[in-house]
Amino acid sequence: MATSTQTTVGNLVEFDLQGTVAGYWVAVLRVVTGYWFLHAGVSKYLAAEPFDAQGWLVGATGGSPVHGFLAWVGQTPWLLEFTNVMIPLGETLIGLGLLVGALVRLAAFFGAFLMVFFYLGNAAWSHGLVNGDLMGLLLFVTLGVLGAGRVLGLDAIIERAEVGDGRAAKFLLG
Question: So what's the pLDDT on residue 60?
Fold first, then answer.
């Protein structure tokens, strides 16, 4: 288990996660979020009907700030096909990365990217601005900022491996 994780937000901030409840909690958040996305991706592959994002894209809430963009994607055949492939594949790969703790910051970035579109596309906000999509977005940001793959994950092993000059690992792992 990693002794600590560091992040820079203006100043260097270090969180000691070695054997603490916080460290284990970060690992639990990573695994639960990974399972959530892995399940979402795999269930799209196993569904009786192939995944089709067109209904959601074209029918995205009219009050959404990205409604025009989503409607355009839903009405452009090659973009719709790309979306139909990438959403289940992305959810599956993001979930796998989080579950095993490999390339967590990269997975968290793309998970947050998807959650921004899910949040803004489902902008009915009938229960206020805080909903499950926003909570998912916050989970991904938290996992990425804390470098959650270093806690009981493969990122701690990948980080120690001497591959090339180490810049790629530093970039992907933080």
Answer: 67
